[in-house]
Amino acid sequence: MLEVRGLIAKVAPTPTTVLIGGESGTGKELVARAIHSQSSRSHLPMVTLNCTALPSTLLESELFGYKKGSFTGAYKDTQGLFERAHGSTMFLDEIGDMSLETQAKLLRTLQTGEIRAVGDFKNKNVDVRIIAATNRELVKLIRERRFREDLFYRVNTFTINLPPLRERIEDLPQLAEYFLKRACARINKRIDRISPPAMSLLAQYRWAGNLREMQNVIESAVIMAASTVIEPENISFPLQDSQLENQMSQNLNFMDAKEKAVEKFERQALTRYLAESKGNVSKAAELAELPRRTFHRLMEKHAITSPRHLAD
Questions:
Q1: Which residues, other chains included, contact 254 with Cβ-Cβ below 8 Å and sequence gap of 6+?
Q2: Could you tell me if 79 and 120 are in contact, meaning their C-beta atoms sit under 8 angstroms apart?
Q3: What structural domains and CATH numbers belong to the chain?
Q4: pTM of the full predicted structure?
């Protein structure tokens, strides 16, 4: 993590395009925001776009804008994200999922600093710094002719690769404390610390979902904690294949293994719904689409208590 911070500090003051690589959930957007916040463009908000969230037909108009009447539903001239990001930074998440046609138009903008709205015949100049991110191997996509090689060299000027959480366990205590503070603020519950045994348990976990999964696990633990300290019994991990295999290797028959898996799912689902409802049992039951009585009965079954000041 110290190496990543060093790279952020070096590239942030420059106008250089940055490519952030890493598995899903490793914190690529957090790095992009850190770069923007340490740059001379930080006085303006960073504009973000997930390239997988829109079909290619809409992605172009979202990026470059469109003129009135250029397609069905275009009732007025509309600015694209490039114009809105003028003078600031644009974060393009999952750029590897962008269509080849849109890649070509993005490349032209990066080369010339010009954009052309859909249905327009005039170009506009924009000053936008690009930070792109991907969880895919762009070199492999280039070989498969699914990503333009010339665009790759444009966005790959400065690269930051984020290792998965399982490969930087030394950062885990600091990250756990960070997510603990966020969860306490979100749920409005006081937790002072994570006990050493609980921290050791966190360090032994595989973290397939990286930081995103860790945030959920810590938030669930905050809800489960009966005191101001998170203990191992408050921590519940998503059921992974290795855990299921471990259950089956404990000489459990099919029904017993199934019962354990269902219990684990129920416990995790209940705590998640309670987290999303900030401890309000009625709202949590609505999210789960269960009668409140049934939801409360399941809470009693798993000894789950909602914070008193949040429970309805």
A1: none
A2: no
A3: 2-163 (3.40.50.300), 168-301 (1.10.8.60)
A4: 0.71
